[in-house]
Structure formats: structure tokens, C-alpha cells
TrEMBL record:
Pfam families xref list: Beta-prop_WDR75_1st, Beta-prop_WDR75_2nd
A single GO cellular-component term on record: small-subunit processome
The protein's name: WD repeat-containing protein 75
Keywords: Nucleus, Repeat, Ribosome biogenesis, rRNA processing, Transcription, WD repeat
GO biological process per UniProt: positive regulation of rRNA processing; positive regulation of transcription by RNA polymerase I; rRNA processing
Classification via InterPro entries: Beta-prop_WDR75_2nd, Quino_amine_DH_bsu, WD40/YVTN_repeat-like_dom_sf, WD40_repeat_dom_sf, WD40_rpt, WDR75
Compositionally biased region (Basic and acidic residues): 732-748
Residue ranges, compositional bias (Acidic residues): 1014-1024
Lineage: Eukaryota, Metazoa, Ecdysozoa, Arthropoda, Hexapoda
Main location: nucleus
SUPFAM superfamilies given in the database record: WD40 repeat-like (SSF50978), YVTN repeat-like/Quinoprotein amine dehydrogenase (SSF50969)
Location within or outside the cell: Nucleus, Nucleolus
Length: 1074
């Protein structure tokens, strides 16, 4: 699959929709709430927070959503393109779609609010603000929502350029309050008179709100001040009251339905309730999960919705301020001023439940199920209070930078670095508790490394015995941790302690990885790959490094062939391909050392040792020149060296000559830019901490010395290249541009070029290792190493470099099920390949920026090869910079489409094999039928019966691993009921089953009683009835025997099923003899 081939996969989004961008809406009775998420309207039950319905008929993002005043069952939304969508939200039916007719052009709708105003339509009119182009002033209109026509009004208000903040009073006092910057407008939408005011000290207004039952309005600004406005029709009678508690900007205001109190929230993560009569008796609800964005109060004043910036909606009781429920989607990280990554640990997979784990709200990890597309829970890792943002300061909170997962353990690394004090580093080990269904802190280590973590990894994801954990720090030290007996007298049991630590030449650590069996530990030190024994990692067993080459990584030879068209290749291309392939085979099979040495010198030889190759003919010089200039991987200096070796001279036009001369002088001869940069770095050294200042000064001084030596000697070598471009002063430009001048081969050979000593050579960038990954299964001996410009595959059996790919990898994810490696390059390209055959199975360009990758195993793998479908076993998930989880799939397909069939607790024999591969089918098929079990396997499920352990298994399952209730409730309830037509059948079978179970009849609780009332009644039966019953039983058994013998197919391939049927027939014949 190449970039220009047809790609049938589409980039789709699994999670990450923002449900708190706009304020939600309550239903009239407060039982439901409506949430906008781009083009969808999600209807949630207020009491449980369960999603009941999705209205997805809008074609563009919704900017407003309100209920009609006279028809409360009608939900009206407006899109950014000017389309009004009306739903009957009780029935979930689209009623009408109306386009707004606002005149010429295509203006963008900024706000839309319904008014208590009806102008010849069934629905209320709306106050709409629009803007055509950026920089133009905002226009406003009153439209009829039934027809979309404009309503003529006479108002002299002229708005400015900013997007206005608007709220409309729908009660007895019909006013519109608008705010633009520090200007506040009050408009009466009956008379269309308006008044304009300025905020105190001209602070920017952040939110406005109208009281539902009084002529009272509230505004808030960036200084945290709240002003309550009264009698604002005239400036002489206007009064406002200051409410001030917030020290940062207020983000939301909401009046209670009675207008007695007002709610406010901001960056302090505190919900404040102000009584308007006595504001000093305010009440607080502190420690909300994040910054408050919106506050909505229900009509009965019983519930208050608080939307926080971490993408959560919390339902708070209006009377006692207790959080009732929470609607939590994919958690967002709060924006801060530090400029650091929001997801430093990337995207991780918990092997216990195959859930995605990533950074959530500050100091938390969020566990997200991709199968059910639901947020499971947030785990608090950092045991510190959250520090809210301040206006003039940058607040640094403790961040979780690394995490690793085992089936029973979790390791987290947290760092607090405020760039002023000593860095706080903590390593925590968490153990999974089956009873609590959560992780419990087991061991906490303070300062395991200095300055932070580079990587944390467990030796095995699924094993617990002899488990090891390796951590790499910014101090270039690797520590290996293991489970030991606790020495604490207050807490006995297992705890984690350091078993060994090591480093290698004090080189920086790029990445580390354990082999599949956990016996080897591979570490990337700079450009060196070191292999350790995981049990004793003090000295490396082997060290592997890449050979130097043209690009500083490996020696390479590129063979470029024309790509085969989709409909077949042309004859001339096929002939060229055959000739090139024959030439390549001849070169490979040749034992001529002289030819090989000449090729090596041509490819990797330094300029001082480069010899002049056989000069091409004059006719082919132009082709050689064009081919060399089209090589994008070579720089200008390297292209000039190749041209010089081939004896090709170029003529440059006079305008380009000056530009090239200036470029070479600045970059090579007189590097003024480099000198200026070094001076700036020297001037910034005082900003560093004293612990780092001396080391930085030493490095900078060493760099200056090498650069000075290079500047003194390199012109002698570079000046010889000027003759190629005719830029030296001793030559003059040619007048004849057609004839190419030739260099004298003998004089060129006699020319002596002074070599540059090693100590004066410029600094060459080494290939720093950024990722290390072992293979799995039959490819466990292969190690993939990612550098700045290459992906190298090492074979540990031969200790040789097996393959190399020219990729600049930024993120890497490995799938142990299929041995597939997925990488995202710095150019946002996706490449999927296997280590043993490093040819791309799939490639895709123009992907969004990503924070991390993860392979999610399918619950029901596809029976197809990875060459046909590379996502047959696992799905590749990506965490984008827009805080969404994306995946590649055909249109209309998602990772949740491979869900198993609904689980039936009373299964037939034909479906048992299918249930074995279901997610929870093992609990149903665990209890196999024994030879002495009853003839009839189906029947009602009795809860007290011992051999039905499936009930206990389902009851004891944790909430976040339980399948959806719609899959199991229906069958579970059916299994507890006995059909009326089969009641007599089950009662008649009870006596027959008794000899084959435990020697007696079984009651409803699974207990047998040898002397029961039933046996006494059977003993009192008359002799004729006994004979008649015996004959009926014999006939029934004979019929069953004939049916089972007829059911035996000739082509039966299931040996277990045949054995079961033979056992049943044998038991029947035994009964017949009796």
C-alpha cells in the first residue's frame, strides 16, 4: 500500500467529543437534559446520567439549543450555517428544517436566542447575530423561526467587531443584554430602546445573565467581580451592586428560577451561591473536578448542572449542594501556561481489561473502554491538592509523566518541576485489588531518579512471578526493581525495592525494552544499543552501534525503479527494469574486490580521499547534473562534491552567483549567523540554575574551540569546490553557455587538498536512539531501533544489522499478536511493517498530529491474513492533538462492531463452541456435562444450584468489565422462568434424573431428601397405576432411543459430540434393561 494507491480506510473518531463547549438545557420537568456535541444533540436522564437518545439531524455544528415557550416538547437548534432544526424530543422525530433568509452573502451565525415574541408563527422569534468577514462589525436580526424570514425592527444600536455575549429575558420583563469588550447594552425588544454602559475600570466582560422574573441583570468581568444591575432603563435611576469573591475571571453565571439567588463559577473550581439580599451569607461547593465553564439551574430549583473543563457534567442538588451524578466523557486536560504536553505518557493499554489509559484531569489517570466507548473511571495518582491558575503567575502542578502496566500491577512516575526549586520525583507501584475493583498503592519511592523519568517498563505484561520493573531517568541511570518482603513492622507483605542500577559512559538514555520472556533488557544509550541480563544488569552483555555513513547513520545504496502502473507496465520500462536488475545481480555476485572498493569510496569516502571517476561523455554530463540535483537527501555541499568527482562544471547566472556566494560565505567561510547564535547562548547562561551553569559553560567553550579550528581550515577545502560553480575570483564567467568546459584529469590528480585534522572537524550529529522494541514469537530475536532518520533492525543471533528503513519516527507502537510495528513520522505519516520483512504493509500521509499510539486487540479476531487486512487481529488507535482518539476503518465500522452475541445462560450444545470465543463465554461453557449427568441439559436456571457457577461469575464481575446490560439481562431473566408448556416435562424428568445425579430427587435449592412427601405418595399408588406408568415410561424411553439413533449423521466430525451421544444412548439402554 503506497501513498498514491487507493485507500479504502477513513479516519474516524472513537471518543473525544466536547460536551461542555456549550451550556446544556433542562427539560421542563427536569428529568432530562440536552447536550450539544458538534452536530449531535445527546439526551441524558438526569437521575442516572444514562444516554437515552441522540438527535443527529443537523448538518453543521449547533451554536444554540432551546425549548419553545409555548410548545415545551419542541426543541429548536440553530447551526452555524443558518439552519434552524426543530425536533419533537419526546418522540425523537425531526419536525422541520428552516433556512434563515438573512440577505445576500453567506454570513456566519454567531449567536441565536429565542425571545418571548411571536410574529405570525407557531414558534417564537429569535434574536440572531451574524458576521460576514473577519474584521467587519457584527450585525443583528430578529427572525421568524417558523418561516426563516426577517422581522423588521427599528433600533439604532450598532455593534462592534467582537463576538457579543448575549442573553434574553423570557419572563415578564422583555430585555436583551449584550456585552462587547467592556461595553454593556440593555435592549427592550418590545420598544427597541437601548442603553449603553461601561464596566468598572473598563475590564472585559466575560459573561452576562438576565433574571427570569425581575428586571435584574448580572455581569462578570476578568477581575472576578460580579455586578448586579437594577433599573437599567435610564442612567439616572440605574443601580448596580458589587459581589466580589473570585480572584480570577468569572466564567459562568446563573439565576435561580425565583430570582432570589445567583450561582457563579470560575478558575477556582468552586461553585458559589449568592443570596441577592444578603450576599455576605454566600455558600460554597469547593473542590470541583476542574474549571467551571457553565452553570444551568432547572425550573423546579431542585438540580443544578455544573459543566467543568475536563469534559464532565456534574448534577448538584439545589438544596444541600451534594453531587448526585456525573456525566463523564473522554476527559480533557486543562489548559495551562506552562507550554508542556497535555499527554506526557501518551496512550497506554491496560492488559488486564484491554482499556486505554492516558492522562486525565490534573494528577489523575483515566481508564477508557474502546469497546463500549465509555469512560470507566478516573484514578487519582497524585496525592496533592490542585493549584488553580493565577493571572500573573505560571502555576506548576505535579504531572504523571510515565506509566507501565502489568496484569496485576501498575507503575507510575510523577514529577513536579517549577524551574526554581529542586525537582520532586516519585515512583509509585499500585496493586490491583479484586474486592475493591481498583488499584491500591503498594510502594512509594521518593527521588528514584534526578530531574524526572525517561521510561518505565515491566518485564512481562501477563506474568506475576519473578516480575521486574526497569526505570530510566534523566540522570542517565537505569534501575531494576523487584518484589521483596516488606521490612516495615506496620505493613507486612510484598513491596518493591531496587535490585540493581547501571549506566553506560554517562550517555543519555533514549529508550529501553524487555524481551518477550523478560530475560534480556535492551537500552538505547545515545547511538549505542546495550543488551543486559535482566537478572544481573550491572555490565552489558553486548553493545551494538551503527556504522558511519553518508547521513551519519548507515551506509546505503539506493536503487530507484519506475513504479508499475495499475493497468500494467510499458515495454520500455520493463526492459529498463530488467537491465537494472541484471546489473545489480552481477554486482552482488561479483568477487572483484577492486570494483567493490571503488563503489565504497564513491559512496562513503570523505572528500579528501575521493578520487575522480571516469568522466562521462559531454552528452551525458547534463543528464548526470540533473540526476544529482534531483536527489533531495543530499545537501548543496554534497551535490558539489559529486559533481566535482564526475568532472562536471556548472555555469551560474549572475544574479544567482551573488546569492550562492553569500550563502556559502555565511554558512561555510564566514559563519556570522553561527557566531551570533553562540553569543546569544553565552548571554543566556545566567538564567540556568547554578548546578547546570558550569556544565553548560564548559560545553559551549568546547564548541567555540572546535568551531574556530573549523573556520580556519575548512575554506581551503571548500575553495576547491568553487571551481565547480565558477565562483572563485581567478575565473571569469563563460560567454558560450552551450559548450561545457572540461577539467584536466591529470592536473586534477596532481592537485593536493589539505586534510582537515580530526580535532578541527566540525561536530557531527550522532544517530541518537529514541525507541527500542523487541519482536515477539518467532521474531523475538529481532530488535527495532529508531533513530533520528532511520529504523534499524538488529538480529541478536548474528549480531548484525538486518535491515534499515529511512523513517524519522516520532511515535511507535508494537502489537505482540501480529508482530506489527506502527510508526508515526515527523511528517505525520503512518507506516506499518513487520521486523523480519521491513516492507510497509500500509502507508498513509496527512494524518493529524498525535500524542501516542496503541494497538487494541479485537474481541473477535478476523480470520484473514495481515497482508489482506493488517487490522484483522488488533485495531490501531491514535491520540491526536485535538484530544480525540482516532482510528482507521472502512466507512461505518468501529472497534465496537466485533462485539460478541448476547450471552445466554442456558445454552444449547450447538452454540457452546461459539461461546468459547466470546468475551465472557468462558463462564457459560466452563461446566461440562459429566457421563452421569441428566439427559436433559436445558431447563430453568435455579439460582441456588451449585453447578451453575455462571451466575456467581457474572455477579462477581467488576463493573468496568461487565458487558452491556442489554446483552445479558434479557437472557438472564428468561433463564429464571419456567415455560408453562414445559412445566410438566420438567416435573416428570425429576424422577428420571434422580438415579443419575446424587441418588435422589433434587429440590429447588439443589438438596436431595431421601424421605419426602412425594415418595410417600408414590408408595401409596395403586398397582394398576404403577403398571400403566411403567408402560408409558418404557414407550417414552424407546422413542428417545430411536430419535437419538436417527440423529447420528454420517459425516459427523465433532468427536466430543459423538461421545456424548453414545453415553446418552448407553444410559437409555441401561434404563430399558431395568
Amino acid at each position: 500500500m503506497y501513498f498514491d494507491d487507493e485507500d479504502r480506510l477513513e479516519l474516524q473518531y472513537l471518543a473525544g467529543g466536547n460536551i461542555v463547549e456549550h451550556a446544556p438545557v433542562f427539560s421542563p420537568d427536569g428529568r432530562f437534559m440536552f447536550v450539544r456535541c458538534l452536530t449531535n444533540v445527546q439526551v441524558y436522564a438526569t437521575s442516572t446520567g444514562e444516554l437515552t437518545r441522540v438527535l443527529d439531524d443537523a448538518t453543521a455544528p449547533l451554536i444554540s439549543l432551546e425549548l419553545d415557550l409555548k410548545k415545551p416538547e419542541l426543541l429548536i437548534g440553530c447551526t452555524s450555517t443558518g439552519e434552524l432544526v426543530q425536533w419533537n424530543w419526546r418522540a425523537g422525530v425531526l419536525k422541520k428544517t428552516v433556512s434563515l433568509k438573512l440577505g445576500s452573502g453567506e454570513p456566519t451565525i454567531l449567536t441565536c436566542h429565542l425571545m418571548n415574541l411571536y410574529k405570525g408563527g407557531d414558534t417564537a422569534c429569535a434574536f440572531v447575530t451574524t458576521k460576514k468577514k473577519s474584521g467587519e462589525q457584527v450585525n443583528y436580526f430578529v427572525v421568524n423561526t417558523s418561516t426563516g424570514e426577517k422581522v423588521d425592527i427599528n433600533c439604532g444600536l450598532k455593534l462592534k467587531v467582537r463576538t457579543p455575549l448575549v442573553d434574553v429575558g423570557k419572563g415578564h420583563f422583555k430585555y436583551i443584554v449584550l456585552a462587547q469588550g467592556f461595553y454593556i447594552y440593555f435592549v427592550n425588544y418590545v420598544t427597541w430602546n437601548f442603553c449603553r454602559y461601561k464596566s468598572a475600570r473598563q475590564h472585559t466582560v466575560t459573561c452576562v445573565r438576565m433574571s427570569p422574573c425581575e428586571m435584574v441583570a448580572a455581569t462578570a468581568d476578568t477581575e472576578g467581580k460580579i455586578f448586579v444591575w437594577r433599573e437599567f432603563e435610564e442612567q439616572e435611576t440605574m443601580t448596580n451592586t458589587l459581589f466580589h469573591w473570585h480572584h480570577m475571571e468569572v466564567t459562568s453565571l446563573a439565576f435561580s428560577p425565583s430570582g432570589v439567588s445567583i450561582y457563579s463559577g470560575g478558575h477556582e473550581t468552586v461553585l458559589v451561591k449568592w443570596p441577592l439580599a444578603t450576599p455576605e451569607k454566600r455558600k460554597y461547593l469547593p473542590n470541583m473536578s476542574s474549571v467551571i465553564r457553565h452553570i444551568v439551574v432547572s425550573n423546579d430549583n431542585e438540580n443544578v448542572l455544573v459543566c467543568t473543563e475536563d469534559n464532565a457534567i456534574q448534577l448538584v442538588s439545589g438544596s444541600n449542594s451534594i453531587i448526585k451524578s456525573t456525566v463523564q466523557h473522554f476527559t480533557y486536560e486543562t489548559k495551562d501556561k506552562t507550554g508542556r504536553s497535555k499527554f506526557p505518557m501518551g496512550l497506554r493499554l491496560n492488559p488486564r481489561t484491554n482499556t486505554l489509559v492516558l492522562n486525565g484531569r490534573s494528577g489523575h489517570l483515566q481508564f477508557f473502554s474502546a469497546y463500549t466507548k465509555s469512560m470507566l473511571y478516573n484514578l487519582r495518582v497524585v496525592d496533592h491538592n490542585y493549584h488553580s491558575e493565577e493571572v500573573d503567575r505560571i502555576i506548576y502542578n505535579t504531572r504523571i509523566t510515565r506509566a507501565a502496566f502489568n496484569i496485576n500491577w501498575m507503575a507510575t512516575g510523577e514529577v513536579h518541576n517549577d524551574l526554581e526549586n529542586f525537582v520532586e520525583v516519585r515512583l509509585k507501584f499500585w496493586q490491583y485489588n479484586e474486592k475493591l475493583q481498583s488499584y491500591i498503592l503498594n510502594t512509594e519511592i521518593d527521588l528514584p531518579h534526578e530531574d524526572g523519568f525517561k521510561d518505565i517498563i515491566f518485564s512481562n505484561q501477563f506474568q506475576v512471578d519473578s516480575l521486574r520493573c526497569a526505570t530510566a531517568g534523566e540522570d542517565n541511570v537505569i534501575k531494576v526493581w523487584g518484589l521483596t518482603e516488606s521490612e516495615n513492622i506496620y505493613k507486612r507483605g510484598k513491596m518493591w525495592s531496587c535490585l540493581a542500577q547501571t549506566s553506560y559512559r554517562n550517555l543519555p538514555i533514549g529508550s529501553l525494552c524487555f524481551s518477550q520472556d523478560g530475560s534480556l533488557l535492551a537500552v538505547g544509550y545515545g547511538n549505542i544499543l546495550a543488551l543486559y541480563d535482566a537478572r544481573n544488569p550491572r555490565l552489558p552483555l553486548q553493545t551494538l552501534s551503527c556504522p558511519p555513513g553518508l547521513d551519519g547513520v548507515i551506509s546505503k545504496a539506493q536503487l530507484r525503479l519506475a513504479q508499475t502502473p495499475l493497468n500494467g507496465a510499458r515495454k520500455e520500462l520493463t526492459q529498463q527494469r530488467q537491465q537494472l536488475w541484471a546489473l545489480l545481480k552481477t554486482l552482488v555476485n561479483s568477487n572483484d574486490e577492486k570494483l567493490v572498493n571503488q563503489a565504497k569510496e564513491l559512496i562513503v569516502g570523505p572528500p579528501s580521499k575521493a578520487k575522480l571517476v571516469n568522466q562521462p561523455e559531454s552528452a551525458s554530463k547534463e543528464a548526470v547534473f540533473r540526476y544529482i540535483m534531483k536527489m533531495p537527501e543530499l545537501g548543496l555541499h554534497q551535490k558539489l562534491q559529486l559533481l566535482r568527482r564526475f568532472g562536471v562544471e556548472c555555469q551560474v547566472s549572475h544574479p544567482h552567483r551573488n546569492r550562492l556566494m553569500e550563502h556559502l560565505q555565511q554558512r561555510e567561510l564566514i559563519p556570522q549567523t553561527t557566531r551570533l547564535r553562540l553569543r546569544k547562548l553565552d548571554a543566556r547562561l545566567h538564567r540556568l540554575h547554578t548546578r547546570h551553569r558550569y556544565k553548560a559553560k564548559q560545553r559551549l567553550s568546547h564548541l567555540n574551540k572546535r568551531r574556530k579550528s573549523f573556520e580556519d581550515l575548512v575554506p581551503q577545502d571548500v575553495m576547491s569546490l568553487f571551481s565547480v560553480l565558477k565562483l572563485d575570483e581567478s575565473t571569469k564567467p563563460k560567454k558560450d553557455t552551450k559548450n561545457k568546459s572540461k577539467l584536466d584529469e591529470s592536473s586534477k590528480a596532481k592537485q593536493k587538498v589539505k586534510r582537515i585534522p580530526a580535532e578541527a572537524a566540525p561536530l557531527q550529529g550522532l544517530a541518537q536512539i529514541s525507541q527500542v522494541q523487541f519482536g515477539a514469537g518467532d521474531q523475538a530475536h529481532l530488535v527495532a531501533v529508531c533513530t533520528e532518520s532511520r529504523v534499524l533492525i538488529w538480529n541478536l543471533l548474528t549480531l548484525r544489522l538486518q535491515a534499515g528503513l529511512k523513517l524519522s519516527v516520532r511515535q511507535l507502537a508494537f502489537d505482540p499478536l501480529t508482530n506489527l510495528i506502527a510508526v508515526i513520522t515527523k511528517n505525520d505519516e503512518l507506516h506499518v511493517f513487520q521486523p523480519n520483512v521491513p516492507l510497509p504493509l500500509y502507508q498513509r500521509s496527512n494524518l493529524p498530529k498525535t500524542h501516542g499510539l496503541a494497538w487494541l486487540p479485537r474481541r473477535q479476531p478476523k480470520q484473514s491474513s495481515i497482508n489482506v487486512d493488517w487490522q484483522a487481529q488488533s485495531t490501531l488507535l491514535m491520540l491526536t492533538h485535538s484530544q480525540k482518539i482516532a482510528y482507521l476503518a472502512p466507512p461505518g465500522q468501529s472497534p465496537s462492531d466485533d462485539a460478541p452475541a448476547p450471552i445466554t445462560l442456558a445454552q444449547n450444545a450447538e452454540t457452546e463452541n461459539l461461546l468459547r470465543y466470546a468475551t465472557f463465554g468462558i463462564h457459560v461453557t466452563k461446566q461440562q456435562q459429566q457421563p452421569g449427568e441428566s439427559l436433559e441439559k436445558s431447563g430453568p436456571l435455579i439460582v441456588g444450584r451449585g453447578h451453575h457457577s455462571a451466575v456467581d461469575a457474572f455477579v462477581n464481575l467488576s463493573a468496568h468489565t461487565m458487558p452491556a446490560m442489554s446483552l445479558i439481562c434479557n437472557e438472564f431473566v428468561k433463564s429464571l422462568l419456567t415455560p408453562a408448556d414445559s412445566a410438566s416435562r420438567h416435573s416428570s424428568k425429576a424422577g428420571e434424573d434422580a438415579p443419575l445425579t446424587n441418588g435422589g430427587p433434587v429440590n429447588g435449592n439443589g438438596l436431595s431428601h431421601g424421605h419426602s412427601d412425594d415418595e410417600q405418595e408414590e408408595g401409596e399408588l395403586e398397582e394398576g397405576d404403577v403398571t400403566r406408568s411403567t408402560l408409558d415410561t418404557r414407550k417414552t424411553l424407546l422413542e428417545h432411543n430411536e430419535k437419538l439413533e436417527d440423529l447420528l449423521p454420517g459425516g459427523e466430525t465433532d468427536q466430543q459430540a459423538l461421545d456424548d451421544r453414545l453415553k446418552i444412548i448407553t444410559a437409555l439402554r441401561t434404563k430399558l434393561r431395568l
